[in-house]
Automatic annotation (TrEMBL):
<feature type="signal peptide">
    <location>
        <begin position="1"/>
        <end position="24"/>
    </location>
</feature>
<comment type="function">
    <text>Inactivates the type B streptogramin antibiotics by linearizing the lactone ring at the ester linkage, generating a free phenylglycine carboxylate and converting the threonyl moiety into 2-amino-butenoic acid.</text>
</comment>
<keyword id="KW-0460">Magnesium</keyword>
<dbReference type="GO" id="GO:0016829">
    <property type="term" value="F:lyase activity"/>
</dbReference>
<comment type="subunit">
    <text>Monomer.</text>
</comment>
<dbReference type="InterPro" id="IPR011217">
    <property type="entry name" value="Vgb_bact"/>
</dbReference>
<keyword id="KW-0479">Metal-binding</keyword>
<comment type="similarity">
    <text>Belongs to the Vgb family.</text>
</comment>
<protein>
    <recommendedName>
        <fullName>Virginiamycin B lyase</fullName>
        <ecNumber>4.2.99.-</ecNumber>
    </recommendedName>
</protein>
<keyword id="KW-0456">Lyase</keyword>
<keyword id="KW-0046">Antibiotic resistance</keyword>
<dbReference type="Pfam" id="PF24684">
    <property type="entry name" value="Vgb_lyase"/>
</dbReference>
<keyword id="KW-0732">Signal</keyword>
<dbReference type="InterPro" id="IPR051344">
    <property type="entry name" value="Vgb"/>
</dbReference>
<dbReference type="InterPro" id="IPR015943">
    <property type="entry name" value="WD40/YVTN_repeat-like_dom_sf"/>
</dbReference>
Length: 330
């Protein structure tokens, strides 16, 4: 393309970018990291320490990946035959904990030795399609299974207990509030549920939008729950203290909200399959910033972060992306 034509094209692109997007781009930096081809990273979890390792589930290769964000070096730790890891989080012990659908087990990997410990689910439960996990305020791991269950693992006793979910299939995303309360989102059931961590009983909380496809959930610093609605293309918020619900439609013609995460500044991040982008929502101004991927069908299925950083696994592009904001974006 001639230089003049290229400059005109670039100018047209810049003029088409909304002012708020340009401002967001100025304050947020991004960096991408390639992972092994075919890994299809599903979930990601950054060690809370600045500059610490970043873990990801290599779902198609039955492994847990470890990224050194300083050097870009990647190492993958095999989890066992038939492994197909879905979720990963860093526990209170500093270790990555994995919900492995292929193994039908919770898996812990020692962050130093990389020793793999498996906690198989009770055989009489069969295959539950494990999805995601969260630790409550007492250090107990709670997890979801899309085949209609949720459960808990006590790391001290290694005891696992499973409950049938109200309304059956669908438990997917799960999160803890700052006070340690546990909530999960039911994709097939289109609801949010609060788990009583003492009795294990789940109470269903229905968003105002019917059949919205609540997929993932995260808490802000005030204990309000933010939910990504896959079917409706909305980001919704539930305040347990007041019982209030509120929802915002993602920008664009056909939004598909998948992942949701609230950062340390209480800004809400959500991935949109429809726009092939990661969005940042400011609850004060009620405005979205958009960060489109430069790869087609990036398919960001989960978001997680640490102070100054939000990490996204692009499962369709075999890479991880970090968005650095505030001091981290300078």
């Amino acid at each position: 393309m001639p230089v003049v034509a290229w400059n005109r094209c670039l100018l047209a692109m810049l003029l088409a970018v909304p002012a708020w997007t340009a401002a967001a781009a100025a304050e947020i930096s991004t960096r991408t990291y390639a992972v092994p081809a075919g890994a299809r990273p599903h979930d990601v979890a950054a060690d809370p320490a600045p500059g610490g390792p970043v873990w990801y589930t290599a779902q198609r290769q039955g492994a847990l990946g470890r990224l050194d964000p300083e050097t870009g070096e990647v190492e993958q730790i095999p989890l066992g035959e038939d492994s197909a890891p879905h979720g990963v989080i860093v526990g209170p012990d500093g270790a990555p904990w994995i919900t492995d659908g292929g193994l039908n087990a919770i898996v812990r990997v020692d962050p130093e030795t990389h020793a793999v410990t498996r906690y198989p689910l009770p055989e009489d439960r069969g295959y539950v399609n494990l999805n995601t996990a969260a630790f409550d305020g007492n250090g107990v791991l709670w997890f979801t299974g899309q085949n209609g269950v949720y459960g808990r693992l006590d790391p001290e006793t290694e005891q696992i207990r499973i409950w049938d979910a109200p309304h059956g299939r669908g438990p997917y995303g799960i999160a803890a509030t700052p006070r340690g309360a546990i909530y999960y989102a039911s994709l097939a059931g289109s609801h949010l549920a609060r788990i009583d961590t003492d009795s294990g009983e789940a109470t269903v909380l229905r968003p105002p939008t019917p059949e919205q496809g609540a997929r993932r959930v995260w808490s802000d610093s005030r204990g309000r729950l933010w939910i990504s609605e896959w079917n409706s293309g909305q980001l919704s918020r539930h305040d347990p203290a007041s019982g209030e619900w509120k929802a915002w439609k993602l920008p664009g013609e056909r939004p598909r909200a998948y992942a949701v995460y609230v950062d340390h500044d209480d800004k809400v991040w959500v991935s949109d399959f429809g726009a092939n982008a990661v969005l940042r929502f400011d609850p004060d101004s009620e405005r979205f910033d958009s960060f489109p991927s430069d790869r087609p069908d990036a398919n960001v299925r989960q978001l997680l972060g640490r102070a100054g950083e939000v990490w996204a696994p692009e499962s369709g592009a075999d890479r991880l992306v970090v968005y650095r904001y505030g001091a981290g974006g300078e």
